[in-house]
Amino acid sequence: MAILRIEERRGLSGDVSVPGDKSISHRAVMFGAIAQGTTRVEGFLPGADCLSTIDCFRKMGVPIRQHGPTSIEVEGNGWEGMKEPEAVLDVGNSGTTIRLMLGILAGRPFHTIVTGDDSIARRPMDRVAKPLRRMGARVEGRAEGSYTPLSIRGGGLKGITYPSPVASAQVKSCLLLAGLQAEGRTRVEEPSLSRDHTERMLTAFGVRVNRDLDGVSVEGGQTLQARDVRVPGDISSAAFLMVAALITPESQITIRNVGLNPTRDGIVDVLREMGGDIQVTPKGEWCGEPVGDLTVTYSRLKGVEIGGKMIPRLIDEIPVLAVAATQAEGQTVIRDAAELKVKETDRIHITAQELRKLGARVEETDDGMVIEGPVQLTGNRCNSHGDHRIGMAAAVAGLVAEGGVTVDQADAIDVSFPGFEALLSEL
Ligand SMILES: O=C(O)C1=C[C@@H](OP(=O)(O)O)[C@@H](O)[C@H](O)C1
Ligand SMILES: C=C(OP(=O)(O)O)C(=O)O
């Protein structure tokens, strides 16, 4: 198990870019696999999660060539191009891979067994299995089909209207992908808007996607047309560098070509509300996704209260936002974030536990955290618990901890941010 050592620092500076967006990289492979023609992807994230997606689709007979770590080519042959896999599909640590892929498999007239690692085995799959069964797919698994390993036999789907109890892009995307293979219309409603990369990329692949105020729908029987995809930098990865620069005295960094989709950029809004100096320079759109450069300067932060519709816009950034809150004047309250409990770890519990090891004042609540700052953190040993975002949040905290921080199980970071350690030490 890799160990990451972070020393206390001052004056971070640099002009850098972060690896490609994980959500968009997964979708580029999957949509390329079901499209007609060749999809070339530049800026692909070669993180463990997206490599799991490539592996699963290769096992279903889709030719995927890697020309370099960030440059791939997917040879799609339409929905019918996918074949019944001989082997079990292993999604590793990736919730996005399993939930989106189940939407594709739900319409395929063959049998598949899907599994993942210990973390995936604890994450709820009934949120997609139940509506897929309503559409006509046969999905079985542990605990009445709620947990991996899952077995699915697809085909013969009928469109449904599904009011999702959670704002989840994975649920929404799964059902839209099944809906494209169903008879009639499939509509997904969500309590507040989750990330809309699927809607944007399907549109770019020639699919008609209808959005209105409280939902999104597709008509069945549509095909996708291959196209080239340029993947922006992942704002969820950039968030670690943003917080690093904001809390480390005398810092200023620029992060180039970051994806600034308005359903994803809540972290920029909240860090600015905390008093963070973040300058945004828009750079246009890549494949329907807004992109820009971020210049971030060390700032005196103050506490903030967040909840409601903001939460889905920064759900993956909450562990590192908690680190920022330990350095902010006053109280930070995070509410309505119970979804954090079903990520790679229980991110409410684990974030609070790891930050407390450094002397932070963090209280867990049912649906979030209350953090008091500012606190001079003190060095200690932290553990990622196999969760990439916890490992990186602990590392960022180490930059302002007296005596630095050692992160155990740091290899988890490769799930979304290969090269994190080298990039941080370059700054
Ligand atoms: O659709 C996606 O690419 C993702 C959606 C989010 O999960 P939920 O849809 O479960 O909220 C997010 O946490 C995950 O990192 C990626
Ligand atoms: C929750 C995450 O990913 P996934 O659901 O794809 O495992 C994440 O990257 O923080």
How would you sum up this structure, described in words?
The protein is an alpha/beta fold and 427 residues long. The chain has 2 domains: 4-20 and 233-426, UDP-n-acetylglucosamine1-carboxyvinyl-transferase, Chain (Alpha-beta prism); 22-230, UDP-n-acetylglucosamine1-carboxyvinyl-transferase, Chain (Alpha-beta prism), CATH 3.65.10.10. It is built from 14 helices and 24 strands. It has helices spanning 22-34, 48-59, 95-105, 126-135, 142-145, 169-179, 197-204, 235-247, 266-273, 310-313, 318-326, 347-356, 388-398, 420-426, and strands spanning 4-6, 13-17, 35-42, 64-68, 71-77, 89-90, 111-115, 138-141, 147-153, 161-163, 185-189, 209-212, 215-219, 224-225, 229-230, 252-259, 277-286, 289-297, 305-306, 330-334, 361-365, 368-373, 377-383, 401-408. The strands form 6 sheets. Strands 3, 4, 5, 14 and 15 form a 5-stranded mixed sheet that branches. Strands 2-16-18-17 form a 4-stranded mixed sheet. Strands 6-7-9-8 form a 4-stranded mixed sheet. A hairpin with a 2-residue loop joins strand 4 (64-68) and strand 5. The radius of gyration is 21 Å and the shape is globular. The model has no long low-confidence stretch (mean pLDDT 98). Bound molecules: shikimate-3-phosphate and phosphoenolpyruvate. Shikimate-3-phosphate binds next to helix 6.
Give a topology summary.
Elements: E1 4-6, E2 13-17, H1 22-34, E3 35-42, H2 48-59, E4 64-68, E5 71-77, E6 89-90, H3 95-105, E7 111-115, H4 126-135, E8 138-141, H5 142-145, E9 147-153, E10 161-163, H6 169-179, E11 185-189, H7 197-204, E12 209-212, E13 215-219, E14 224-225, E15 229-230, H8 235-247, E16 252-259, H9 266-273, E17 277-286, E18 289-297, E19 305-306, H10 310-313, H11 318-326, E20 330-334, H12 347-356, E21 361-365, E22 368-373, E23 377-383, H13 388-398, E24 401-408, H14 420-426
Parallel strand pairs: 2-16, 3-14, 3-15, 6-7, 10-11, 19-20, 23-24
Antiparallel strand pairs: 1-24, 3-5, 4-5, 7-9, 8-9, 11-13, 12-13, 16-18, 17-18, 20-22, 21-22
Helix pairs in contact: 1-2, 1-3, 1-7, 3-6, 4-6, 8-11, 8-13, 11-12, 11-13, 12-13
The structure holds shikimate-3-phosphate and phosphoenolpyruvate.
